[in-house]
Design a protein that fits this description.
The chain is mainly α and 204 residues long. It has seven helices and no strands. It is elongated.
Length: 204
């Protein structure tokens, strides 16, 4: 009885294995596919931000799909070039947003006196937040580069991604400046760090 059961298990396992060889999965190859995996969560936990960061970074590394399957209607090579510039700019902006959300999870807006017992933990947390904000600055430099290239082709209009064109306009007119935003975060973080460093056994 045991031998028959063992043979059944062996046969069933082999059946599942061979069946799996013939199954097909959805392969992610192109930048647009990775971008479509990016999504916002109702609650933005650090793991959620890291997941989105992974997808967006892969979107920057991957090849673009055929223009036939682009996120905008492409009819010629000029539109195709502008589309790719705007895509790169937009994805870098989304990465900045995700890094700022991630940084905010470790940041401390105020060093309250009753946080003194956890001074060292708070200082470590601020250090992580600072690193994350500085990474976001790097993506801003990239966004500026692609925005500048896209701006030179602003006479080409792609209605399906007008939001990206609006971002391009805001960057080039100075209405969107993540450097100022990030540097303000870093300056405040440094003030909070100094407040924590001044805490001693008499603070609380």
């Amino acid at each position: 009885m045991i031998k028959r059961f063992a043979k059944f298990l062996l046969f069933f396992s082999l059946f599942l294995f061979l069946g799996g060889l013939n199954s097909y999965g959805w392969r992610i190859l192109y930048a647009e596919q990775y971008y479509k995996l990016y999504h916002l969560h109702f609650y933005q936990y650090p793991d959620d931000s890291m997941e989105n960061i992974f997808y967006l970074e892969q979107a920057l590394k991957a090849d673009f799909c055929n223009p036939l399957y682009a996120l905008a209607r492409i009819t010629n090579k000029v539109e195709w070039r502008r589309y790719r510039y705007l895509f790169k700019m937009h994805v870098n902006l989304k990465l900045i947003e995700q890094y700022l959300i991630l940084g905010s999870k470790y940041d401390k807006m105020v060093a309250y006196f009753y946080n003194a017992p956890w001074k060292e933990d708070n200082l470590k947390s601020l250090k992580i937040a600072e690193r994350v904000y500085r990474v976001a600055l790097g993506y801003w430099k990239e966004a500026l580069k692609w925005s500048s290239m896209a701006w030179k082709m602003r006479y080409v209009h792609l209605p399906e991604i007008q939001y990206w064109e609006d971002e391009n306009l805001r960057i080039e007119t100075g209405k969107l400046n993540y450097r100022e935003i990030i540097e303000a975060h870093l300056a405040r973080l440094n003030r909070v760090r100094k407040d924590f460093e001044r805490m001693d056994k008499n603070t609380y």
